[in-house]
Amino acid sequence: MLSALSTKPTATVSGTDTKGDHWTLTLYGPGTMNVVDTAGIAFTKANRNQARDIGAITVSGTVTSQSRLIGKVTPGANSDGRVFFQQMNIEATGAFSRLDPTRPLSLTDPTAQNGIAAVNMPDFWLGNTSGTKPTQSSPLHAGFFVAGSITATEGINVLRFGGVDATYTPTGGTPLNTTSQNNEFVVSIGTPVAGGVSVIVKKSITDAQTVAPTGTNTTGQVFQQSATFLATGRLNLFQANEIDGNTTPSTATLPAASPSQFLLNPPAPTPTTTEAGGTYVVSQGGAVTGQIGNIKVLGNATNFTTFTIENDVFSTQQEGVLDPRITNFYIGGETNNVAVVAPGGTRNVSFGRGMDNVKINTQFIQYLKVNRGAVNSSVTSSRQIGNMIFGGDVINSLIQSGYSQTLATYANTPSSGFTSGGGVFNGVRPPDISDRQQNSLTGVFAPTAHGGGAIKGRIAGNVIDSVISTSVDPDPSGINEPGTFSPATTKFFPFGTPQNIVLPRGTIDVKVEGVVDNSGVQSGGNPLVSPDVPADTAFFAAHVKVKHGPVVPPNVDQLSKSEPIRFGHSQRWLKGLIRRDNSINFPGRKA
User: Fold this and answer.
1) CA separation for the pair 204, 188 (Å, rounded)
2) Which of 30, 54, 193, 471 could form a disulfide with 503 if both were Cys (CB 3.0 to 4.6 A apart)?
3) What is the pLDDT of residue 120?
């Protein structure tokens, strides 16, 4: 359907930023382009050597099958070579569709194409170049203001740019983390006419401002400086070298800086409200349901949340009608505060190093591979976990299969005139078996055990203070908090008590190389595991098979950050997009 990309340049704009970097933007194929500085003055040949930061880039009249935007930077002396801009808008102004949909525009162009095939500007970064306190309300998160944006209502097949930096402040400007308000950068990409969307960045850098309580108050304030990547329809690929965020713990005077979707009972001083934050990667429904093909973070990931949903983020989600899944999820470096919600399930989930402070709520997992171990993490699967391999210890972690969840609700519940927004998109922590959430309609707490859970896996280390269970409900009533059959001040039913509901079809088949020691979660006022069972009890199901012996760790790739980007077969038509910088490798071809 799409023709070869144009090689004819139609517009070129050059300029110099305040750090001395010289930049050039070239538009190929149909369309026009306008670039202005933070004062709204256009960059022209006459003033291109004047030091000014980019305020807005506007591209109009493009045709998806032919147009592309290329950006190049020549670093100035003593500069990091990053050129910042605050807005980019790919306007859907190429052509109107036919009034009579049965009559194509032409034999070679059967439908209006108002998007752009590619934006390739790897040294251009989204930042607050104006240096002023944002005043425009965010369309995505209530109470947030837009610090910068990229918008393409009719899609970008491949968007490659430097990334987002919420910590950037131009000389003499006001840092975002001193504005005492929530700010976010928004990258919103509509559904292209064909081919889906791919986004490639070097980094996404977010931050937070913490404010101490005043007077006799015991609650402080947290203002998040976040980034949201929102694709409508299929997101083929999101790739980043690194995702950074602020995880400063609470002190005697300041609350924790982490976004609230990662916090559980934070110590005083606590934040006053629920505040979403960090980096979001979301595929929402539109003409087609949300889908993510590949999430790739080659290095470390901090304060990173990703999910898919059937409808758009402004609509109430449906449970289990369509199939919004995440096919492949990969983090090559260290993790700290990572959340994944996949209502349609996940095929491959891989961690090149450890799985630390990670929460996964999904319909199913086909393969879960971790080169090292898991620490302070939870995996809750409504159905089976097909093949689970840990290369190290599993510590203070929960792994459950066969538990009913309202996954679309865990992802996003839009706010209304009667209720505040919910789900991870609005800063609500996804539940696990130790911290269940109550359904406002039925009063039942979830996740709740159901039959058919199954886990098959290998652990090349110890299992310490962790529970791995399938289709076992520690709370028979399903109404009170997990572990309690009556009010929390009286009797508790932890894992391993006769009062548990053990559904007959749940199975666990694992091989463990090290020791199992749950003594640390068998004491206290609300133990997770009953003190009446042996301390080496960590697996709970109707049918449990545990072997002990050597386990070969997985060999998850730890990719080099300079490795050429590989696109799927469906994007082979982008052949020839970029050649000189060896940045893209196509299937069947060496870079």
Assistant:
1) 15
2) 471
3) 93
Contact partners, residue 525, CB within 8 Å, separation at least 6: 492
HEC string of 471-532 equals: CEECCCCCCCCCCECCCCCCCECCECCCCCEECCCCEEEEEECCCEECHHHCCCCCCCECCC
Please answer whether residues 404 and 380 qualify as being in contact, where contact means their C-beta atoms are separated by less than 8 angstroms. Answer: no
* pLDDT for the residue 498: 86
The alpha carbon dihedral of 97, 99, 101, 107 has a sign of negative
Angle 201-130-425 from CA coordinates, rounded to 5°: 50
Q: Which amino acid is at 336?
A: N
Max CA pair span of the chain? 82
Q: C-alpha angle 572/577/583, rounded to 5°? A: 95
Q: How far apart are CA 311 and CA 283, in angstroms?
A: 9
Chain centre distance of CA 381: 18
Residue 4: per-residue pLDDT: 54
Residue entry with tokens 């290369």: 391
Both tokens of residue 181?
A: 């308000």
Task: Convert the pLDDT of each residue in 418-443 to its tens digit.
Answer: 566 789 999 999 999 988 877 665 56
331, 354 contact by CB (below 8 A): no
Q: What share of the chain is helix, strand, coil (3-state, %, to 5)?
A: 5, 40, 55
**pLDDT 10s digits, 32-43:** 999 999 999 999
Task: Please state the φ and ψ torsions of residue 90, each to the nearest 5 degrees.
Answer: -95, 100
Q: With a cut of 70, which residues of the chain have pLDDT below it?
A: 1-6, 94-112, 268, 320, 416-420, 439-444, 475-493, 559-591
SS3 (DSSP) at 231: strand
CA-based end-to-end distance of the chain: 26
Question: What are the CA-CA distances from residue 93 to residues 62, 115, 144, 188, 415 (Å)?
Answer: 7, 9, 29, 17, 32
How many angstroms separate the CA atoms of 68 and 443, rounded?
A: 53
Plot region of 239 (φ>0 → left; ψ -120 to 50 → alpha; else → beta): beta
Half-sphere exposure of 167 (CA within 13 A, CB side): 10
